[in-house]
Amino acid sequence: FYISRDALPTLEEEEFYAVDMVGLEVFSTDNAQKIGKVLAVHTIADEDTLEVQFDDSKQSEIFLFTKEIF
């Protein structure tokens, strides 16, 4: 199923579409060093999560997506 981006509603401040997160770089909160990128956004048990591929690993990890963490 595909919807043209032009057909989507205009977003309010601090709103985004989940698809826009895919490919974003992920940085450490300690020293602002790039540590990976977002591979996917998932909803698991009514919680939004981000699948992150770390630069130093072929494996990815899933993190709960909250304003406090990200």
Task: Give a concise summary.
Helices cover 0% and strands 39% of the residues. The chain is built from no helices and four strands. The mean pLDDT is 90.
Care to describe what's here?
Strand 3 (47-54) and strand 4 (60-64) form a beta hairpin. Helix content is 0%, strand content 39%. Strands 1-2-3-4 form a four-stranded antiparallel sheet, with no helix packed on it. The protein is an all-beta fold and 70 residues long.
Name the average pLDDT. Answer: 90
Radius of gyration: 14 Å
Order of the strands making up the biggest sheet: 1-2-3-4
Give the class from helix and strand content and strand pairing.
mainly beta
Beta-strand level of the residues, as a percent range?
35-45%
What are its keywords?
70 residues; 4-stranded antiparallel sheet; 39% strand; mainly beta
Ordered list of secondary-structure elements with their pairings:
Blueprint: E1 25-27, E2 34-44, E3 47-54, E4 60-64
Antiparallel strand pairs: 1-2, 2-3, 3-4
